[in-house]
Amino acid sequence: MSTTQSRARAVEAMFSSIARWYDFLNHVLSLGLDITWRKKAAARLGPALRGGKILDLACGTGDLSIAIARAGQTAVITGGDFSDAMLAIARAKVARHKLDQRITMEKADALNLPYPDGAFDGVTCAFGVRNFADLDLGLAQMARVTKPGGRLVILEFTTPSNRLAAALYRFYFTRILPLLGGLVSGNRGAYQYLPDTVYAFPSPPELARRVERAGFDDVEFTPLTFGICGIHSAVKK
Ligand SMILES: C[S@@+](CC[C@H](N)C(=O)[O-])C[C@H]1O[C@@H](n2cnc3c(N)ncnc32)[C@H](O)[C@@H]1O
User: Fold this and answer.
1) What CATH number corresponds to the domain at position 212?
2) CA of 73 to the centre of ligand 1 (A)
3) Is 78 domain-assigned?
4) Which of 45, 67, 109, 155 is the most exposed place for a label (fewest CB within 10 A)?
5) What strands, in cross-sheet order, belong to the sheet with 229-236?
6) Would 178 be classed as within a structural domain?
7) Which residues 6+ apart lie within 8 Å of 210 measured at CB?
8) Per-residue pLDDT tens for 173-231?
9) 57, 60, 54: which is closest to 25 by C-alpha?
10) Helix, strand, coil percentages in the chain from 3-state DSSP, rounded to 5
C-alpha cells in the first residue's frame, strides 16, 4: 500500500470513529459559527444553485449538502464521502429533513471520483481538502468533474493574521479544543489532528495558486470570523 493510501485509510478510520459525536462537537467547539460558515459557502455557488447539479465532496454528516438544498430550492445535490459511518448519519439526517428527493449520499473517494468529466455545475468541499492524502490530486479530480464555467467552493480553516486573534486562536485550538473534543468523543488524537493539520495546511494565497493550477480561474478568497476560516471560490476554465 502506498503512503497516500495508508494516510487515506487512517483519515477514514479516524472520521468513522468520531462520526456519532461529530455534529455535536462541531457546533459546540465552533460556538455554532460553523452553521453560518456553511450557509455563506452555499451562497457562493451562485448561478449553479438554480437547477444545477452539485457535488458536495467530503460531505461528512451532510450539513453543507443540506445548506445547499436550502439555498438553492431547485439544485440537485450529491454528497460524496469515503466514510460509511459519516454517510450513514448524513442519510438519516437528510431523510429527517425530508430532502431525500434532492440529496443523494454516495460513497466516493475524492482522489478517484466515480463521476464522468464535467458531471457537475458546482463542486463544494467544507473542511475536507485539508484531510486529503494528496491535495493536488483531490483538486485535479474536483476540476475534472466540474463543467467548464462551473463553480468550485472550498470552506476551510485558516490562521488569523491579526496577532492577538492568532494567539487566542492558537491557545483555543491547541489546548482547549483537543481537551474537550477528546473528553466527549473519547478520541483525543482526532481533535489533536485538527490543529496539527490546520497549521500544516497551505496559506490562502498558496491554496489559491494550487486551485488555479488544477484548472480553475477567478479564484477569490473571503476570510470569515477574524480569519479563523475562509471561503475559496473559483470558476472552472
Ligand atoms: C472534517 S469532515 C467535514 C465534513 C463536512 N463537509 C462538514 O462540513 O462538516 C472531513 C470529511 O472528509 C472526508 N474525507 C477525507 N478524505 C476523503 C477522501 N479522500 N475522499 C472522500 N472523503 C474524504 C472524511 O471522511 C470526513 O467525513
Assistant:
1) 3.40.50.150
2) 24
3) yes
4) 109
5) 103-107, 76-81, 53-57, 120-126, 146-157, 229-236, 216-224
6) no
7) 135, 136, 139, 202
8) 899 999 999 998 998 998 999 999 999 999 999 999 999 999 999 999 999 999 999 99
9) 60
10) 55, 20, 25
Strand, coil or helix: 80? strand
How many other CB atoms are there within 10 angstroms of residue 31's CB atom? 8
Task: State which residues form the domain around 36.
Answer: 3-20+28-159+202-236
CB 232 within 8 A of CB 207: yes
Residue nearest to atom 9 of ligand 1 (CA): 60
- Supply the pTM of this predicted model: 0.96
pLDDT in tens, 89-141: 999 999 999 999 999 999 999 999 999 999 999 999 999 999 999 999 999 99
User: Which atom of ligand 1 is nearest to 19's Cα?
Assistant: 27
Number of domains in the chain: 1
Q: Is 106 in the pocket of ligand 1 (CB under 6 A)?
A: no
* CA pair distance 31, 220, nearest whole angstrom: 26
